[in-house]
Amino acid sequence: YFNTKLSFKLAEGSPDDIAGGIIAASAMFAGRLLRREFGGAAFLQHRYFDPQLYLAGLDPNRGGDAVFKLGTYPWFGVPGVPAYDTLRHKGQANYKEAVAPKVIAGWTRGVPSGARAVSDAARAAVKLQVELGCEGIILPAPALDALNRGVQDFITWTDAGIKACRELNVASEVYATVALCDTTLSNRPALDHPVLKAATDQIAARPELAGAYLVVETRDEDTYSFESQDTVRALMVVIDDLTRGAGRRVILNYAGTFGAIASAMGASVWGTGPYKSQRRLKASDLYRKNGAASFPRYFSLALAGDLGLGGDIETAVSAKLFRPLLTASAAAEPLHRALARGLGPASVPTWEYRKGNVVKSLAHYNTVMQRLSTTLDALPAARRIAWVDQWLEDAARHAQRLRRAGIEHSNATELAHQEMWLKLFREWRARARV
After folding, report:
1. Tell me: the pLDDT tens digits for 98-156?
2. DSSP assignments along 300-314, one per residue
3. 103 close to 77: Cβ distance less than 8 angstroms
4. CB neighbours (10 Å) of residue 163?
5. What is 209-250 written as a DSSP string?
6. Average pLDDT over residues 60-68
7. Cβ contact 141:54 at 8 Å
8. DSSP-based three-state secondary structure for 281
């Protein structure tokens, strides 16, 4: 599924048959979302909505715009937020100008407490998703970042959401939000981690739940792909406990290419997108950064990661290592032709490595992810596992060869995760005997 932000329109050249979308609450304020039309975005005919209560700790002084958007949703508990009214406010910009200061001032960096407040908040989140026509309900829950208070809050909010679904006669599948943080996962064996065990046990004990909506915030990492083995092991434990152990479904968002591994392990849906903020969850991505802009990236499926356009891709061509990394798409075809003629990305205007020149690289990534998803979905479980195993083995070998050619792991070229993913995937296979 496409991890959907403000724009419901995919980059030009993207496939129109992406399976679905997951809309983030932080993408737009509540009144704007309720007025959006889904008909123009084919992929959003299948949609989920993430209430993102786990972002309640955002700093309003640094993330004012995101806080404003989130604070317009009632489950964040900001008092006195007026609903958007077209006649009264005469436009969305006027609404933001009038309401944002109040929302930011009323932002508590916490979640509603007390049985009545939590019940009302959970009901509001469920009701909105029913109104949006979501194919499933994602219950709001704070971050699971501590054993005692974190787990208790998770239970309280999940039970309140289940009660709301019952009262509103929800017929679609219901998912508990399991929002983890890598700082909680670090330096603890995932198989014995008390937070992970508590979360999966609580979900398994509730027949009303179809499964979990799973995200992990990477506070310690600033990468496109998970590079911490503690984080990867934790995700694998949760997915395995819920799918193979409890027979439940898992929706994994902010997954990047790791979604392919999740799919092989039994996850039903995985969400990603070409931008860094779509491939990983990091609260600080929502803070305004002056001068921040994107540069084009070349995603190689064979590498299970990006190959930098600022020189690394040409080094790979010179070392005769690029051909097996080439990943076909209509968007990338002009770049492939130039590289075959001994030219670099600078000779292709739509792939030149410069600020903001990203349309073709976005479309390329979307195309590759859609094809990857289609390939995996077409395989029975055993063959899917074998396919991912071989894919990871090849990716690890490609990464090693690129390092030998003098290409270093960087923000633009991903060479650090492939071998670790392969090792942990095979650990899971041995444990699961699959």
Report:
1. 999 999 999 999 999 999 999 999 999 999 999 999 999 999 999 998 776 889 999 99
2. ETTTTEEE-TTTHHH
3. no
4. 15
5. --EEEEEEE-SS--SSS---HHHHHHHHHHHHIIIIIT--EE
6. 94
7. yes
8. strand
